[in-house]
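Interim report, section 4.2 (structural modelling).
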Amino acid sequence: MRIPMHRFKYTMLTKEQIGTKLKSAEGGPRSASTFSNVLNGKTLKIVTQNGPTLEYKFAANRRLTLTEGGKQVAAGYGELTLNQMLFFSHLIPGEQKGYNVFIDQKTNLATVFEVWTSSGIKQNAGRPNEFTLDDREVQRQIYFGYVDGGQKAPEKLHHYTNRMTGKGIHWTQDAGIETLELYASVANTNFVELTRHIDDLSYVATSDYVLVDDRTIIYNRTECEFSGIHTCFVTDLYGVKQVGVRFGFNDKDELEYYMFRGDGKVVGQLAYLENFDDHGLRPMFAPAAASAPAGGAAAVPPTGAALPQKGARTTYRPVRSFTHMTDEEMHQAALKMTSAFGGGAAQQAPPQAVATGNNLQFSDILTGKEFTLRFDNGGPVRDYRIKEMFKLQYRDRSDNVWHDADYRAYEGDDNLAWFSHIIADSKPRASVQVAVDFTNGLATSIESHMGTEYYGNETTYHAIFGAVEMPGPSNVEAPLYVRHQLTDELVGHAFSWSYSDQTTSMHIYSSPHSMSWVIFTGAQALGAEWCSPCIYVKLRPGVYIFCQNEEACNGNQMIELLNTKASHDCGFTFNGSARGVSLGVTGAIGRHIGKFDILELYGPKRRNA
Amino acid sequence: MNILRPGKSRTAQSADNSRRSFIWKMGAGASAALVPAVSMAKAEAKEATTTDNPALRAALLEEEKALRKFHQAFEQAMDKGLHEEVIGMFAADTEGAEVVINGGVFRSRSHGVSRLYRDCFPAGKTGRRMEPAPGFELTADQQRDSVEVSPDLRSAKAVFPYSIQVGMPFETETSLAAMARLHGEGVRMWWEGGVYRVNYRKDAARHWKISRLEYDTLSRADYRPGKSYAQPISVSRFATRFPEDQQGPDDLV
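Predicted structure of the assembly:
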């Protein structure tokens, strides 16, 4: 798959189309590995808490009959075992639903996933932003229970957990599929399709984690807002093995319903920051709409609270509320208002347009300097005259006209200026974020402008490299060959960034071209998560530029200088909407949360090997 | 409020003479002992006080007890976020009710008061009990509670200390705020301490109802439980009325 998942136009399969496709799977899932045969000839009654009672009879040739609520159906099933765990999966013919059942044969405890399509679930019900989930998006409801053999009902069942939080595993499945899965949140997974996709971009899917015992975890993810496909497995963390199932429709609208075995390698562990007595027993997903506070808030349901609606989960769906603007609409808005650092129409500028919170202090490092930035490969040549701390003059040699511009600058490292300004009269509206290393004579500019091929109100950026020329007593001798450069040194690292005492986000630099960010809850559990492509530039050892656009999200660009020695970042935001274009500032205090050793998984050499 | 120290007894001299038609009663334990002293003072003032009547005195004590219980129920409902119960504690629209908070007045149970407790408070996760921010504890004087019941037993005034969590949703369109809202965050929260100044009135069914509630905020701090220190903060007062501000007050004070 070449088109990124967040750009791919997945078909809006209808309920009827889905029903037709599912008929082919009523005989049960496929499997590249040989099915196990534990259940043949057995009967099982599974009692679940707040869920169904499922009475199974298993016959030869992987056929079963299920009695549920007095109704009996027959279907094919697949079955795999992993240590004491028995896993089987089947659909219910004609109902667009099925069950994935995990049974611990030692304890007789069971975890049951009911899965279904064409849910008709409404989000933001009753609000102006109400929408219905795509029929192709696989829903899941998890029930905890036990195999009823006439014994007393167990007091303790499987339960939700945060024990997988922060772990990363590289999986290789029996059919050759490789994925990198970073379980950085209690409600999401950041994953990279190493074989299915041509680019090494990481994506985020909503997830649940269930503890069976200290070495055994049940997991699932659903690629909501993408294909809607569902992956569910049990893993043994001692042997780092998995058995599971994949169910849903891929980018070609083909039904994928197969079971798999996989071998994994733990690639690292991030710290998770909940209190030590917090074991993540309660799931994090939206409560019933009736109890949702105003403003669309959702919460971890308190003990004894009404159960959340069936299928509820914490899923960020940003593109649903992202308004599409054409390039021309965007430019007309920019003509009405282009704000740099709150200037002009400050009241319309984003809150980050002032250096508040935990941002780095602005610097006067550029004040009094005149210099030229000459970028490589026929890139721009820009002269700068800077007499004040917040106002500069620049001239692009292509038009040879001096322009005044508001700017903000930081000293991101010793004698390393990091500043930004709007490009005057630009169409589409453009800005630059520039690092000038006055010690080494190097310059990098992130050239940003409004508009992508998808949205006029998204930003586009690219990095150009060059040198600084500054005549006079503080002459900088610019190198001819040495340059700043794109880097993968940050890949695998995770930092929390606290922009203020109220806002912290953890960034996972999950691949050479992408990242994800995760929001902490009040209890400092890692919750909502999303992802975007990005680039990294190395300026000096420990000093980098990180640049991302929240693509198919809100189109906002964040361009930060990361000083990992000081655990601080500082930088700029650039975004546009119907209100106009805004260039702002941002910055945060960082904490290094950990690192995944994943760099070896990326790159064309490996793919071609 | 169990997190605050018990209030000291108010002396007879400290009672506001302009309110001599009311009997001051402070602190449940102190009330009984104090009443005779108040009665004597009143007698010397040659004014036949209502407390000369033992039956009335007993009735006043009963009403005070009922009001303390009523306030306890109010605080519990606030703590649990049972805002419909809170709204139901206010006087009906025909009787009039209002809440004064942070420079705004929310009028009428079915309009302003409902808007405050149904929309504004839940959005800001406001109203839950919270331990006082370290270094910002109310003084003993500030923690003093009082209940005064009118002789006709139909109205009352009270002062109770409070120590609560207050918050305000982030007014930003950033993805961080949107994501935080997914799990019930996206709210700037702080601690407030102060006193409730409450007027009560009995309704037709002779149930106590709140006719006026003022949040008299004495202290605010950037604090959450578990944090080792707190810093004072200032919070903007309401500046825009409803309906321009959909969660705003009916009037500004």
